[in-house]
Amino acid sequence: MSEQFDVIVIGGGPAGYHAAIRAAQLGMKTACIDAFAGKDGKQALGGTCLNVGCIPSKALLDSSKQFHNLQHNFEIHGITASNAAIDVGTMVGRKDKIVKQFTGGVAMLFKANKVTPYFGKGRLLAGRKVEVTAPDGGTQTLEGKHVILASGSVPIELPFAKFDGKTIVDNAGALDFEAVPKRLGVIGAGVIGLELGSVWKRLGAEVTVLEALPEFLAAADADVAKVAAKEFKKQGLDIKLGAKVSRAEVQGDEVHLTYNDGKTDQSLVVDRLLVAVGRRAATEGLLAEDCGVKLDDRGRIEVDAHCKTAVEGVWAVGDCVRGPMLAHKGFEEGIAVAELIAGLPGHVNLDTVPWVVYTEPEIAWVGKTEKQLKDEGIPYKVGSFPFAAVGRAVAMNEPAGMVKMLAHAETDRVLGVHMVGANVSELIAEAVVTMEFKGAAEDLARIVHAHPTLSEAVHEAALAVDKRAIHKAN
């Protein structure tokens, strides 16, 4: 007889493990199935985010920032060093240690909350049954009152640039280079391409980023994207827009690329190639034909506003459904579904999910861009403020960037906030809270912000919406 559970979660990434832990907290007998294996071959919970995404990339970003500052930015503080060197093996080892700490932490949380983990691939069958295939090929079947699909996403592979794990890599491969490549090519100027391109540029690689779109960071506000592009250019990141790659051939230890710049074909030779053109829902092999769950034309699981599929008792959350492929969006969907199953209120507002690019400077935004407001015919006011006029930013020697606030022209309600600068990944939270509480620019303008802090840029941007910023000419 199949083992019975109140909730079975397929996927132990951000959306899945949050769903499993919250379901268990609410008194439900819960199982979580995940196939991700660490370098030791053992189950490593946490999905892409903890293993080869959010956490390890931030570890390398921090290591590379320290090295770059030692070489280029400490002298202004009166600190000098000579013959600085980076041991890539030690840096990657530190990253691996952090990953193991956090994946092990999820396993401990499962144990503490009495979540039963299964190591293997989960497949939804009819009648809310789940088949688990272990790494050795053995199978068993579980049965649940509710099933939560949280299978995540995988990198998109280009047909002419197949991943080989060494010369042509995805995000996972770019986290594990054994040495700094002399020439690194990156296809895609999105979050992954910019972050990992920045890591290896700081460590000494010549980095060329090829972006097919004619605009840089088209998802971000145009003013913020313009400032960011200028800073990246100063850093030596060679970002080529409107560059459509058609060929990537490995010849010995090199990759020979052909791309069109909108006029003619161009060639580029690199030692390593990172393909970062986006991700797709990981739904292959997840659903039995008769399970009743439907996929959309992009391979994502079809759900309603509350993450319900067409099958009673089957839910889906995270990267495998509509909405932004962001870990924190998955966190909240997983928790919301667990609470809905328990008969509690549960909802995620996709309009106030913050976006962050952890480059130097950081880029963050929430809500509508100015272009979106124009296209939708929504009347708005704009306030902006540069970090160059913020005492704390200048004292930190990080004056680049700005905060831009968009508010409704009639109600003053905050519609979008866009930032580029030091630590804006933290500052964006104030904007999210304001928007969740339907706050106005006036509300932010009248809140006392500590001095000297970077948050004063948010305060002054709110003041600037009504042309009353103190530290800049309005």
From TrEMBL:
Matching SUPFAM superfamilies: FAD/NAD(P)-binding domain, FAD/NAD-linked reductases, dimerisation (C-terminal) domain
Pfam families (alphabetical): Pyr_redox_2 (PF07992), Pyr_redox_dim (PF02852)
EC number(s) reported in the record: 1.8.1.4
Cofactor note: Binds 1 FAD per subunit.
Ligand binding (NAD(+)): 188-195, 211, 278
Compartment(s) where it occurs, according to its Swiss-Prot or TrEMBL record: Cytoplasm
Catalytic reaction annotation: N(6)-[(R)-dihydrolipoyl]-L-lysyl-[protein] + NAD(+) = N(6)-[(R)-lipoyl]-L-lysyl-[protein] + NADH + H(+)
Top class in the EC scheme: oxidoreductase
Chief location of this protein within or outside the cell: cytoplasm
Family: Belongs to the class-I pyridine nucleotide-disulfide oxidoreductase family.
Other remarks on this protein: The active site is a redox-active disulfide bond.
Protein name (Swiss-Prot/TrEMBL): Dihydrolipoyl dehydrogenase
Source organism per UniProt: Coralloluteibacterium stylophorae
